[in-house]
Amino acid sequence: MEEKTYVEDINRSIYDIKDESKDSYRIREGLTEEIVEKISEEKHDPEWMRAFRLKSLKIYKELQVPDWGPDISGLNMENIVTYVRPNTKMSAKWSDVPEDIKNTFERLGIPQAERESLAGVGAQYDSELVYHNVRKEVADQGVVYTDMESALTGEYADMVKEHFMKLVPPTDHKFAALHGAVWSGGSFVYVPRGVEVTIPLQSYFRLNAPGAGQFEHTLIIVDEGASLHFIEGCSAPKYNVANLHAGCVELFVKKNARLRYSTIENWSKNMYNLNTKRAAVAEGGVVEWVSGSFGSHVSYLYPMSVLNGRGARCEFTGVTFAGAGQNLDTGMKVVHNAPDTLSVVNTRSISKSGGVSTFRSSVVVTPKARGSKSAVSCQSLMVDSESRSDTIPAMDIRTDDADIGHEATIGRISDDAVFYLMSRGLSEEDARAMIVSGFAENVSKELPLEYAVEMNNLIRLEMKGSIG
Amino acid sequence: MNEMDMVVNRLPVKTWNHLHMNESSLKAVHIAGEGALRAAGPKLKPDESLSRAFDSIAGGVGRDLDLLAAQAGVKVASFTSEAGGTEPLKLQLSYGEGDAVMNRIGLTVREGQRLDVIMDYRSEPLAKGLAAVQTKIHVHTGGRLRLIQLQRMGDKYTFINDIGVQCEEDGDFELIQMVFSGHRTYMGCEAALKGDYSTFKGDIAYAVSGEDSLDINDVVRHMGKHTECEINAAGSLSNRARKLFRGTIDFAKGAKGAVGNEKEEVLLVDETVVNQTIPLILCAEEDVVGNHGATIGRPAEELLFYLTSRGISVEEAYRILKNAKLEAVCTKIWDETVRQELLDFLHEGQLCDDAMKEDRTNGEA
């Protein structure tokens, strides 16, 4: 009899606790001009933003759904509520957050993480932020960390207007256009020139309302010579109706600046995660993406780096774990658009229990990018034959002066490795579990576990195998 | 005159459309007749069953080529292996100015038999035209087919080269393709490893220069248990050449013990070249091993330094390195006569670069 390792799903119990929906305002389902106007009115948008939303809606209606990725026919925008305002205002004190919402974030470990290891926290519940705070010593350095709505009308309004959806224009794809029309919440971060933020900032996105969408916008500008580590976490309880996440992240890494953007995505398995993330990196700048994709029913997620300045660099480290009922299409894109740029990509994916994992990437080297180098490595592990794992890496090189390397492997747990470990006294069960764990560890060790307890909960895969 | 717009070389799984790698298109393709096929070597019998089942074997170029052939009424010329046969079958297609022709060739390797085939496509250097060849292959249980395809087409020729293979249990298919010239080349090979322990080994070598383009779509479908494939593509791009390599290893559910390896090495000679590569591994079976590796770029500075420090000019160093990609595959050619002819062809500097093409166009060469 052929023996197999069974790798348990992630223990989701703490994420699946649902709060009773006590929102103070919930827009009706669907997507119309009237709804978009109403969202704009509710959020007290400046006029340019109202016009931007309406223009985005028009683009949304003109664009087609992608014909190349996982099936999203189960997503019907007519059934999605695009704006749900929780029954509270944003606060800078946890004590002011309503008890039920606070309990949710307590369970996820956010306040504890803030106390122990974060420079600032933003917590979004459905469509709005309910908590936002930044440590005084960080604020004293001139670091701005606030919600997008405040930034849109406050001191940094011009900066927001200059950068908002410039990297990810609504014409980029249908769900970028959707985001432009109905976005709500998210964070704005500005790190002034030369400032090094030594401990991370974190935003946490929680979608509680069934049948709702979350469309937060994150805009981060790290000025010349500055550095920042930003952590993003997201989760939702599971419902029987489809939920949608179509957030947008725009990162501007200026000359010689450095930004690490870490994400732990653990949406529930009824979630369509159609998120767009992009970074523009100037001369000598560095963007590091650390991405863990564990949740959602369907994901389209490809953080993109546009290396616009000489010597700009990007590093992408990702792990995707697709279990039962999941089709996770993840990967990355990089455009080398300046001389001597460098990209390094290292990903792992694990498919089990009928899950589908696809690694999709593109490396584009323009004629301007002479002297550029790229190294992409993706490794996939099939835990059983009910699952599927595909690798679709594209390279488009338009200069001779480039050094491009790509390697991909797919395979199963090696019998030789199991034999070796068993000969050292491990049971077969433990040996297989150790190999699977080691496969993911190369990437998961990069995840900032020390900064948020929630991530510990998420990464604690039940690797203990069972034979049979 | 019936003209057909065709979509060819489709990726088995699509990716972002903006990359323009999902497929290629050809506009207003017209076939006026069949090319003059010259067969030399053993007198092999036709295989009527393969002729009838020709379209049931999928080729890498895609179904539109089957439709084009049907529309143009192109007949299948088929050849069947003989027991104990060792002499290679040589098929030559020589094309002329203004041709718009197509051929369909069926190759059957009967159970436990072997067949070696050399297909040579060529035209006059300045000729303009369009030619298409479809080769469908059925390797029966324990059979082995070794196929060499040589392409020396004119600077203005569009050439479509389609291969479809079906391998039964323990059937082996070895393919060597060498592309020396041709203005627009579309090559596709789909190998269905249906039988357990069947194998595919493919070597592609190319030198694309001038304004020429090479568009490749190779797909290996591992369906049987313990099937193996190895795809190696290597070549050089110079001047304003473009190349798109699609390579897919597809492990179907049930293909336990299958192993697939794919490797591509591309030498980029000029800053105006365009190289696109998309190697797919599709996997629905746990018990498989699939690997892909690609190396794309200029020669290492150390290597160039070494060559130039020995008195070799940079231009000559590049020529040596371009030829080396082709020679590495030449040495795998099992027919000594063909191997030597090609090595001579390379050593005599007959491989064209952009300057030679311009000279030729201006009547100076």
Structure description:
The complex is a heterodimer of chains A (468) and B (365). Chain A has 468 residues and is an alpha/beta fold. Chain A has one domain. Chain A contains eleven helices and 25 strands. Chain A has helices spanning 33-42, 47-62, 99-107, 110-117, 136-140, 148-153, 157-163, 174-182, 415-423, 428-444, 453-459; strands at 25-26, 84-85, 120-125, 128-134, 144-147, 187-191, 201-206, 213-214, 217-222, 227-235, 243-245, 248-253, 258-266, 271-274, 276-281, 286-293, 298-301, 304-307, 313-322, 327-336, 342-351, 356-365, 372-382, 388-397, 402-411. In chain A, the strands form three sheets. In chain A, strands 5, 6, 8, 9, 11, 12, 14, 15, 17, 18, 20, 22 and 24 form a 13-stranded mixed sheet that branches. In chain A, strands 4-3-7-10-13-16-19-21-23-25 form a ten-stranded mixed sheet. In chain A, helix 2 (47-62) runs antiparallel to helix 8 (174-182) and helix 9 crosses helix 10 (428-444). Chain A starts with 24 loop residues before the first strand and ends in a 9-residue tail after the last helix. Mean pLDDT of chain A is 85; it is low at 1-9 and 450-468. Chain B is of the alpha/beta class and 365 residues long. Chain B has one domain. Helices cover 17% and strands 47% of the residues of chain B. Chain B has six helices and 19 strands. Chain B has helices spanning 48-52, 63-72, 301-309, 314-330, 336-347, 354-361, and strands at residues 4-8, 24-29, 37-40, 76-80, 89-95, 100-109, 114-123, 128-139, 144-152, 156-167, 172-181, 184-193, 199-208, 213-222, 228-237, 242-251, 258-268, 274-283, 288-297. In chain B, strands 3-5-7-9-11-13-15-17-19 form a nine-stranded mixed sheet, with helices on one face. Chain B has an eight-stranded parallel sheet with strand order 4-6-8-10-12-14-16-18. In chain B, helix 4 (314-330) packs antiparallel against helix 5. The two termini of chain B are 36 Å apart. Strand 24 (388-397) of chain A pairs antiparallel with strand 18 (274-283) of chain B.
